[in-house]
Design a protein that fits this description.
Low-confidence stretches: none
Largest sheet: 7 strands, mixed
Order of helices and strands: HHHEEHEHEHEHEHEHH
Strand order of the largest sheet: 1-7-6-2-5-3-4
Oligomer: single chain
Number of domains: 1
Strand content: 5-15%
CATH architecture: 3-Layer(aba) Sandwich
Number of helices: 10
Structural class: alpha/beta
Length: 234
């Protein structure tokens, strides 16, 4: 977590201002537009990246649907993943996170502003309710992110197995599925280093409902995982 302290130290004079703004946005989230929220996130992530020696390169932005709601499905490397997507994504999105993260300082404010959902992997009934809520919100025009591995990979840039159940919200919403390949994000917070690091985020060609409507969720998971693995290998 050395890099977090470096980010704070190099932005020490402005940290109170941005933290206060996050609190304000979190308390008034329902009355603030998604465009303003995304702008705030990008400003904060940009300052954090600058202070922490992090560079994010985003590719494939043309693959992100412009005129309909969708769901991101990236590989999962660590706590920095969501911030990396916030840095480059041209469209606002929310996230489904594991319950253990909902009280982490700083990230908890971002999740509140996003309107994120926490999921208890040991409570099947609660998980199904979240799937239903996410599906309905996507139908209503909101974009979401789900990590189909369920937990972060602890093997550098290796891609873990994707769980079919992660795709149920997308299939119920009949929305585009956008695979996202994340490289080197684990180096930001999980290595103990503060050396300069470049994180790559590659948005891959979407899988549209017409392409997957006859597929089982396990088959969708395998197809999306393969696309990300192929991108990682290249």
């Amino acid at each position: 977590m050395k890099r977090i302290w470096l980010m704070i130290f190099k932005n020490i004079l402005t940290v109170p201002f941005w933290y206060g703004k996050l609190w304000y946005y979190a308390a008034n989230s329902n009355h603030i537009s998604e465009e303003k929220k995304l702008t705030l996130f990008k400003e904060i992530v940009s300052r954090a990246n600058s202070g922490g020696n992090v560079t994010v390169i985003s590719r494939g932005l043309e693959n992100i649907p412009k005129d309909q709601s969708f769901m991101y499905f990236p590989n999962h490397q660590g706590l920095y993943d969501v911030l990396a997507l916030l840095d480059g994504s041209p469209r606002f999105f929310s996230v489904v996170m594991k319950k253990e993260l909902e009280h982490l300082p700083f990230l908890n404010l971002i999740f509140r502003i996003m309107g994120a959902y926490s999921i208890d992997r040991e409570d099947v009934r609660q998980s199904m309710k979240v799937i239903q809520k996410v599906s309905q919100e996507v139908k209503e025009g909101k974009n979401f992110l789900i990590f189909p591995e369920g937990t972060r990979s602890k093997n550098s840039n290796a891609v873990g197995n994707f769980k079919g159940g992660s795709f149920k919200s997308a299939t119920k919403a009949k929305c585009p599925i956008v695979p996202v390949c994340i490289r080197n994000a684990y180096k930001v917070f999980d290595t103990g280093s503060v050396d300069p690091v470049t994180v790559e985020v590659q948005y891959l060609r979407p899988l549209y409902y017409e392409e997957y409507k006859e597929m089982k969720t396990t088959e969708i998971a395998e197809k999306v995982m393969k696309r990300i693995q192929d991108a990682m290998d290249k």
